[in-house]
Amino acid sequence: MSENEYISTPNFSLSDDLLAIKSLAESFANTEIRPYALHYDESQEFPHEIFAKLGELGFLGILVPTEYGGSGLGYQEYAIIVEAIANACPSIALGVAAHNGLCTNHILKFANEEVKQKYIPRLAKGETMGAWGLTEPSAGSDAGGTQTTAIRDGDYYILNGSKNFITHGNVGDIAVIMAVTDSSKGKKGISAFAIDKSMPGFYASKKENKLGMRCSDTASLTFDNVRVPASHLIGNEGEGFIQALQILDGGRISIAALSVGLAQGAFDASLKYSVERKQFNMRLADMQGIQFKLAKMAMEIEASRLLTMKTAWMKDNGEAITLQASQAKYYASEIAVRAAEESVQIHGGYGYIKEYPVEKYYRDVKLLTIGEGTSEIQKLVMARQILNA
Residue 106 in contact with residue 240, Cβ under 8 Å? Predict the structure, then answer.
């Protein structure tokens, strides 16, 4: 056997199908999103028209099989789509990620057929947005502190409590909610329920005024004696927390992809500015200090992209990704913060005004090290995975 016969060379190129998805997503982002990103950031309006078009493209049912009205795509396509949209507007990309990866995917992965048939087609078409409720005022990184309760009452469960920082809390009619069904069992007493706003007592109670991601709808949810059919229990009692962890693994791929897209957008803007802007009778791009910044940004963004796409490929191939998803989410989000900061620095004073896009990237980016598990939680997850290997 020759040396070349047993050395395998990885193929890092995208397939023709993935390239077509990438081209479609980038074209849509550049024509339908980028020109309006600042408007929606300033107004804090949820961009209903844009999301309606995203639904028509199949970008709100990316992971949903075609028999439920979805696109029947995988996590590699998902990552490519989210990255392209985040390059134009991270806030809209956050909505795409949360809708596909959390609420819709949780119902698709764990709910019974009755609930799937009731909710998935509507979500996949973008007829309404999906919300996913884990976080509470006293239960952020510590989901074991969940206080929302679900008490069995014949053929129903009675939900009481509240959730906060919920994406699509106002604009979403369908939600997956984690609630305690047995307080004596800690995290193993948390269950998941599929609910909708036709159920009396379920309503959004507060819209948050945020630093960044301002057109992404973030609200508190309240449950006041909400009667939920027992058939809307997702899986079995006590499985909610374990389900949530699995959903978060996949969700972290989308946040990593969002981070890559934001960082790439900030880099692209900085590269353009450094070529056009002159100081001391020379382009910024000809100054070694700026060159070093650009070189490091480009390298770190590409490393983030490779780590993200590797994790997406593993997920599509049925491999365990808890470690890799945390690595990708942690690294890509931290790199995105650094890229956004460097972009503002390269722009100087112009980076601090809204005429240039890097100001918005800088405000939007910080959420990425907090949402779907803080950077500190990611390090805990990674450490446990390594130590238990």
Answer: no
Q: What share of the chain is helix, strand, coil (3-state, %, to 5)?
A: 60, 15, 25
Angstrom distance (rounded) from CA 43 to CA 47: 10
If we measure between CA atoms, which residue out of 190, 127, 128, 126 comes closest to residue 159?
Answer: 190
168 in Cβ contact with 95 (< 8 Å)? yes
Structure confidence at residue 141 as a pLDDT band (50, 70, 90): confident
Q: Choose, from 56, 239, 372, 376, the residue flagged as catalytic.
A: 372
Q: Respond yes or no: is residue 372 known to be catalytic.
A: yes
Q: Residues, the chain, total?
A: 389
CB atoms within 10 A of CB 126: 21
CATH of the domain at 40: 1.10.540.10
Question: Quick one: 97 and 157 in the same domain?
Answer: no
User: 10 Å Cβ neighbour count for 125?
Assistant: 18
Torsion angle of C-alpha atoms 74, 236, 113, 220, degrees rounded to 10: -70
Contact 44, 215 (CB under 8 A): yes
Query: What percentage of the chain carries pLDDT values higher than 70?
Result: 97
Would you say residue 5 has pLDDT above 70?
no
Domain boundary among 201, 216, 238: 238
Report yes or no on 352 lying in a domain: yes
Q: With CA atoms as reference, report the closest residue to 212 among 41, 350, 60, 25.
A: 41
How many Cβ atoms from other residues are within 10 Å of residue 336's Cβ? 32
